């Protein structure tokens, strides 16, 4: 059987081509990905809007927790980077903290109101309101307790 010879120059070109292709592939892997400006999904936009509203409410009472706005800024950054899951998680955390801060604000307002109400003479209806307010405070429902005690007027 006759052996066919493979020209050395053709072999060299084939090896060189493979080397260049492999080198280009390695270069592409090492190149940093350019950040892509992405429009946030509707879920992210809704989470950010809810957090923004809750933070605005907490700030209107001058009662916001230390890290709440930090979490919100991190949520906005995650949204800019296209990390929807992280953006939603952080926005929800910021919203929750702002809502809890507002609840705390009302609890702190309701406690002295309750003490003043209990010190005075109350009608049967007022006593019922005081009992409901005490239960609301016990259940950490600040706004409910505050609203109930506001029905008694300034005592």
Question: Would you spell out the secondary-structure blueprint of this structure?
Answer:
Elements: H1 8-30, H2 42-60, H3 68-80, H4 84-119, H5 124-138, H6 142-150
Summarize the structure.
With 155 residues, the chain is an all-alpha fold. The protein has 6 helices and no strands.
Fill in the keyword field for this structure.
rod-shaped, mainly alpha, 0% strand, 155 residues
The fraction of residues assigned to DSSP E strands is under 5%
Distance between the termini: 116 Å
Count of runs of 4 or more consecutive helical residues: 6
Q: Biggest sheet, in brief?
A: none
Which geometry do the CA atoms define? rod-shaped
Query: SSE order in H/E notation?
Result: HHHHHH
**Could you tell me the mean pLDDT?**
86
How many separate domains? 1
Describe what you observe in this structure.
The structure is a single chain. This protein is mainly α and 155 residues long. The chain has one domain. 74% of the residues lie in helices and 0% in strands. The protein has helices at 8-30, 42-60, 68-80, 84-119, 124-138, 142-150. Helix 2 (42-60) runs parallel beside helix 4 (84-119) and helix 4 packs parallel to helix 6 (142-150). It is rod-shaped, with a radius of gyration of 33 Å.
């Amino acid at each position: 059987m006759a052996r066919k010879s493979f020209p050395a120059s053709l072999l060299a070109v084939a090896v060189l081509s493979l080397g260049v292709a492999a080198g280009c592939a390695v270069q592409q892997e090492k190149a940093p990905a350019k950040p892509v400006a992405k429009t946030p999904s509707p879920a992210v936009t809704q989470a950010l809007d809810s957090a923004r509203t809750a933070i605005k409410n907490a700030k209107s009472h001058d009662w916001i927790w230390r890290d709440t706005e930090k979490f919100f800024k991190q949520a906005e950054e995650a949204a800019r980077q296209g990390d929807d899951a992280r953006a939603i998680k952080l926005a929800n955390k910021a919203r929750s903290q702002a809502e809890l801060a507002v609840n705390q604000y009302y609890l702190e307002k309701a406690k002295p109101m309750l003490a003043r109400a209990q010190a005075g003479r109350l009608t049967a209806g007022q006593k019922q309101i005081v009992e409901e307010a005490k239960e609301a405070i016990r259940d950490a429902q600040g706004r409910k307790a505050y609203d109930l005690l506001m029905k008694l007027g300034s005592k």
